[in-house]
Amino acid sequence: MSETQREEGTPVLPREFAPPTEREFTGYQRLVYREAGIWLSEAKKALLVGRVSRRLRELGGLSFGDYLRRAEEDEGERVRLLDALCTHETHFFREPRHFELLEREVLPRWRAHGDTGMGEGRQVRVWSAGCSSGEEPFSLAMVLRHHLPAEEGWDIQILATDLSTRVLERARQALWPVDKAEEIPKSYLRAYMLRGVGSQEGKMKAGPELRSLVRFQRVNLNDGQGVVGRFDLIFCRNVLIYFDMASKTRAVERLLSHLSPQGLLFLGHSESLTGPGWGVRTVIPTVYAPRPLPRDATRRG
Q: CheR-type methyltransferase domain location, by residue (predicted)?
């Protein structure tokens, strides 16, 4: 999942729309929480009204109550509802300290050792959870490809996932307004991005080398289905802030279950894992590594 449910002003409803009743809003709260682990507080009511109203128009003016019943019964409509409630705001190379850690410490160490410590040669697996419109996984692709060149045998695989099918389709296109170029270091921009011409003027696109590294998939962190294997790096930034403690606990447990023993988990700047229960240690703020097992436990294992 990407950043969701930002505050919006009170929407002006068309005359044909009556706002949801308290009972109906409670129904939406329960549905969204059950499906995505996100609790819509009373303060998010205006957001829900504004976003769902667009879908009601598309369906010919259903009421909020009618649409709630439809979403309850139709899995495809539930996906559309979650799509409607998602706001996707992201940037290339967001939270620079994370990329500095990779470029100054992690990737030089992997290159010097000739592997990631997973015992699988020069294969690198990365999961960008909550990838939004693709800026994060493609930022990672640029950094990894630069430091771990293909001619040295490095095989890079990036899984980019999001709850929203709509935003995943945008991410697959790997196409952005050319204004986004300002967020990308010039050396990476020249090496990996293509400037649009003709009908694509004013846009930029990731080059074929980068696109070959990234695979997109819809994944709901609330159920964790569809993700297989371990990853050397997991980025899940600015997603957990929208979960309550129970949902956050489930999501973090799933993320850590897919993290390699030598891997790193990256969270957003306002997210943290505190306390010994998580079984991780802090590398730098918001970056975590699995805590090594005691020697006795390692021998027993």
A: 21-275
